[in-house]
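#lab-general

N.A. 3:47 PM
ok so I finally got the sequence cleaned up, no stray characters, all 214 residues accounted for. can someone with queue access submit it? mine expired

B.Y. 3:52 PM
send it over

N.A. 3:53 PM
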Amino acid sequence: MKKTCLFLAVALVLTSCKKDNTSIDSSTIGGSTNIPINTVGNTFSNSVSSGISAYQGTITITKVTDGVSTIQFKAAIPSNIPILQGIKAKYKDASGNLLCEGKFKMTDAGILDYNNKDHKPFVLVKYDGNVGDKYILEKSDGTTIVREVVRKSTTDDYYWNGLLIKTIDVEQTSNIAGVKKITYFSNHKFGLVAVRVEMEDGSKPQLSLVPKTY
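B.Y. 4:20 PM
back already:
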């Protein structure tokens, strides 16, 4: 199982819950993959903030096959954010830094990720989705992952990279000890712009992303 960078890894791979809603296709998205953000060599400036602590890593698209991007993640793993200490050794380099890959299909209609236990395509966001929409993945171990659209901007109200933009916010509940929920913030032009992990202690570490090309 491949994981993504730090909080993104936690958010996309390890969480699961049990709910029922099968009215929306959770394994496919429409649209074109021939978009600037989905190109080999594109990089994503990024930062993880938790309280007064912050750090950065390297995120790069290394390959695109049939529209699906392989994205490489490199980052130091700070010791002062406890949730990050559980990353397995096989996702680290010889110096103990994160070094791993994830697969995503990014189109002008949404984002799929393939970073679950079974590597199945699973909707992260559909840009034409509405509040209340749910995306469900049934895993081979009998559990399900559920993502729900909880908010969709009608005005430019999310501050990002010096701009105000619209976002569609998808929430995923968690069974990870200490983690209450995860929220993905996406924009139809800029893709995934942030992942927020809400901890049971009230803290909210967040990964923010800015693509170089979009």
